[in-house]
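pasting Dihydrofolate reductase for the record, 162 residues
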Amino acid sequence: MLVALWAQDKNGLIGKDNQLPWSLPADLKFFKETTIGNTIVMGRKTFEGMGKRALPSRQTIVLTRDKNYQSEGVLVMHTVEEILDYAKQSGHPVYIIGGALIFKDYLPYCDQLLRTMIDEEFDGDIYMPEIDWSQWELVQSTEGVVDEKNKYAHRYETFERK
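structre below
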């Protein structure tokens, strides 16, 4: 099963200079709890924006066109088909975590979307690709807690393919 997992502002912004343009520790905790023990797939730019390090207790796959790309502690793959084959064989959810080009390539194959919607506008340069929402059904929406560490109103949304 392929699952797209991301956070966005109300304009669909997901990044700035290959980083998150906001600080929302509760969302990072949600991300960790969701992906721990599973496989995450990201593009090379996203991986390098995270400091070129694999996240603990997760199988990290970096997707790149560069056939010579290597990095310690990660699997490197080069095609949509490789990821789809891996996901079929794994028997566990495989989380697509970005960036925008990776989401665009994999959204047609996703069974579920996990979106953190942040009710603010931020400055940035990377936006979530268009999604045909008629193909998706919102099955769960949970308000996030706003406090001194998590200053932005946000909610966690789960969509299933119709």
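The beta strands are 2-9, 13-15, 39-43, 59-63, 75-77, 94-98, 112-118, 126-127, 136-143, 154-161.
The two ends are 15 Å apart (CA to CA).
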